[in-house]
Each structure stands twice: as structure tokens, then as C-alpha cells.
Specification:
The protein contains 15 helices and 15 strands. Strand 9 and strand 10 form a beta hairpin. Helix 1 packs parallel to helix 2.
């Protein structure tokens, strides 16, 4: 541990306490812990170099000031098209959704025939707002991160951004792109993409050999899975809605797969000699493995699987039934996190008892969505000590649905 501490002190990091057992060091607000015995000096050097390259003032991704007030509905809204959709599904009309992120809330919205705008909760928020299970484990995790000198929000956002990168790479592979298993190629793909990831986290990922190698490993495991199940993508990142619960969400993958199963029947085998009950030449009951074609929904996960994810899949199943009238044969989670010879986890969720909670959770989530005040306040103009301050002159409050409808009308 001493060599790690000496290194941090030599480049300007300060101990967070004078306690002899102190393991936390800080520089310009960036905290590094040396408590992990598996952490090498090289790990500390890499993290310290990252922190020095990405100091707070550099990380701000603001546009150059041009004297104009920022339009939050332009900078925080985007039209979302599916990464891929097959011909048979593309022929079925579905709404065009846009995504809007304001004040930490993510909404999906679409223009209705009467000119109004309908705002939907995201699937994640609907389930989070409607789920009544205790959140003790989450709070305990947050406290653990703080004890380790980490900001839980930063840890969560970086993990989510790595998940976004994983989804993007899976989508590129599913669309038939050559995926070279080199760090430089992954970086090139990310540079060409328009992923909405903070510059701080994108730079952190591209400069981490460990994260790049892990992502390549995830891609290899996913390719093996696709081959094992002869997977054919039908739709990638397609946004659909469940109108009953005023919720919309992108579905990771709708696909056809071939799943192997064992069936029992008469397949040409006969008894070779007389027995007590059978004569020689009588047909013999036997088993064989066959491949069954299935239409499935797959939700990608980076690691462990939880009950809330089952409800996400059930929500997606209802969306697909509502818009495409497809009776989905199975809902699955896929994760590349596995130590088995299979190298991945592909878990069927259709038979889970958790699905019995679905309508209760969805209803409660919808009520909470409806009760949220869908207004957005922002600041405008300029302050100067020579002028009297009037709050109404420097604030503007939008009714989100009305503002969006007005903008659609002007398009």
C-alpha cells in the first residue's frame, strides 16, 4: 500500500484525514481509495492520470456562449428510430416516438391525431415508481460506495454508460457489421457513433484497457450465444407503448431463435426382440432432440438479474402484442456474465411468479406518472447589479405537453 500512497502524494493528492489508517486521497474534488488489496500501483496510476486529464472545469460539456438563451427542448429532445427492423414488422404502422430528458426525468412522447401531445412514462420509471419492495439493499450499496470514497451517482452513471456501449456494440453485430476484436476498432466505432454519453465517461472508457478488453469479451460471448440459438433479429431498440398504462420504452431485441428441446415419440425405432409386452418389430417409444423455432423478446443485462427485470420483460411482451399482434413464445434476459462453459446466461422469465405483480406495479406506476407535475422551469436573460432583480424577468415555466404541441405545429 505504501507505494500507492507515496505515488498519490507525489502528484498532489492529499490524505482526507490525518488518521494513520487513512486510505482516501483527494485532488480537485476527485477521490481515490487505496483500500482494495487487489488494486495494483498501475491501477492507481491509471485512475490518477484519468482524474488529472478530466478535471471538473474540462468536463463541462457546454456549448460556446453566443449570447442566446439555451432552448432546453432542443438540447434535451431527440427522435428515436430503431437500430434495425425487419420488413414484416416495418410494414405494420406504429407511432413515431421522441425522447425528452428534463430535470432528471425521462419521458417519451408522440403527436396525436388531434394535435395534442401525449407524454408517456419510461418503462424503467414506471416500474421504479410502482414497485413496493423495500429498497434497503440500494441504500446499503450507496453507503458502501461512499465508504470506498466513490460518489454513488458517478458509479451508477458510468455503469449505465458502459451498458449503453454494450447495447450499441450488440446492435452493430446484429446488423451484420464486421466487428474486429481490437481496442482501436471499438474506439473507432464509438467515435463514429452519436451515443448520448457524457464526454467524461466516454473518455474514461476509451482510456481504460480493462474496460475495452471486457467489452470485447462481452461481444465474443454474445456472438457465441447468437450462433448457439441461430438468432435472427426482427427489431433492435424499437420503441413501443402500452397505452393502458401510459408507458413507452425501447425494446432491446425482438428475435427469432431456435431452441433445442427433448421430445418423446415414435421415431422409427423398433424392438429388436420379443419382450413380455412387446413383439420384435413393434415401434419403440424413444426421445430425440429437436430445434423449436420461437419468437422471443430479449433484454440485455451487463451482470446480475433481478425481479424488476421480469416486469420489464412482461411490459415489453404486452407492447409487442398490442402493436404487432404477436404472441411472443418467451421472454428472456441475456447476460455475458457467466463462469460456465456456455460463457453466458440466457434465462427464461415467462414462468416467474413475479409476473403476478405486473398489473399492480404498472397501475401504481401510472398513477405516480399522472400525478407528477409535467412542468419545466428554466432561467433566461442576464443579471446585472445595476438593474433591479425581478424573478419573473429571468425565469420561464413551460407546460411540457403544451410546449411540445406548439413546436410540432410550427414544424
Amino acid at each position: 500500500m505504501k507505494d500507492k500512497i507515496d505515488y498519490l502524494l507525489s502528484i498532489g493528492f492529499k490524505p482526507m484525514s490525518e488518521d494513520g489508517s487513512n486510505v482516501l486521497f483527494v485532488n480537485n474534488g476527485y477521490v481515490i481509495s487505496v483500500a482494495n488489496p487487489d488494486q495494483t500501483l498501475e491501477d492507481v496510476v491509471a485512475e490518477a492520470e484519468f482524474s488529472l486529464k478530466n478535471e471538473d472545469i474540462i468536463e463541462r460539456e457546454e456549448l460556446p456562449f453566443d449570447g442566446e438563451d439555451e432552448d432546453p427542448f432542443i438540447s434535451n429532445s431527440e427522435e428515436v428510430e430503431p437500430e434495425f427492423i425487419c420488413e414484416e414488422l416495418a410494414a405494420i404502422p406504429t407511432p413515431v416516438f421522441r425522447r425528452l430528458s428534463l430535470d432528471g426525468n425521462r419521458y417519451y412522447y408522440r403527436l396525436m391525431e388531434d394535435g395534442t401531445v401525449k407524454i408517456y412514462a419510461s418503462g424503467t420509471n414506471l416500474i421504479k415508481d410502482g414497485y413496493a419492495e423495500r429498497k434497503d439493499a440500494l441504500e446499503q450499496w450507496k453507503e458502501l460506495q461512499k465508504l470506498m470514497g466513490q460518489n454513488p451517482k458517478d458509479v451508477t452513471e458510468y455503469k449505465a454508460d458502459k451498458g449503453t456501449i454494450m447495447h450499441f456494440l450488440y446492435g452493430q453485430y446484429l446488423k451484420g457489421r464486421d466487428m474486429y476484436l481490437r481496442r482501436s476498432f471499438i474506439i473507432k466505432l464509438l467515435d463514429e457513433s452519436d451515443l448520448r454519453i457524457s464526454k467524461k465517461n466516454m473518455d474514461r472508457f476509451k482510456s481504460s484497457v480493462e474496460d475495452l478488453d471486457e467489452m470485447i469479451d462481452r461481444l465474443v460471448r454474445f456472438a457465441k450465444f447468437c450462433t448457439d440459438y441461430e438468432l435472427r433479429p426482427m427489431a433492435i431498440e424499437k420503441i413501443l407503448s402500452c397505452e393502458q398504462y401510459e408507458v413507452a420504452s425501447p425494446i432491446d431485441l425482438i428475435a427469432e431463435i431456435y431452441e433445442e428441446k427433448t421430445v418423446e415419440g415414435y421415431f422409427g425405432e423398433v424392438y429388436q426382440k420379443n419382450t413380455k409386452d412387446k413383439k420384435k418389430g413393434d415401434p419403440k417409444l424413444s426421445t430425440k432432440k429437436v430445434k423449436e423455432k420461437k419468437t422471443v423478446i430479449i433484454d440485455f443485462k451487463s451482470g446480475d438479474m433481478h425481479n424488476e427485470q421480469i416486469l420489464q420483460l412482461e411490459l415489453y411482451r404486452r407492447m409487442v402484442k398490442e402493436w404487432y399482434n404477436i404472441d411472443v413464445d418467451g421472454i428472456y434476459n441475456f447476460s455475458p456474465k457467466s463462469e460456465s462453459n456456455k460463457k453466458y446466461v440466457f434465462r427464461e422469465r415467462s414462468g416467474s411468479k413475479e409476473i403476478k405483480k405486473a398489473d399492480c406495479v404498472f397501475m401504481q406506476g401510472m398513477i405516480n406518472h399522472q400525478n407528477k407535475e409535467k412542468k419545466f422551469k428554466t432561467y433566461k436573460g442576464c443579471l446585472n447589479i445595476k438593474n433591479s432583480f425581478k424573478e419573473e424577468d429571468c425565469t420561464i415555466t413551460y407546460d411540457i405537453a403544451e410546449e411540445l404541441a406548439k413546436r410540432f405545429k410550427n414544424e
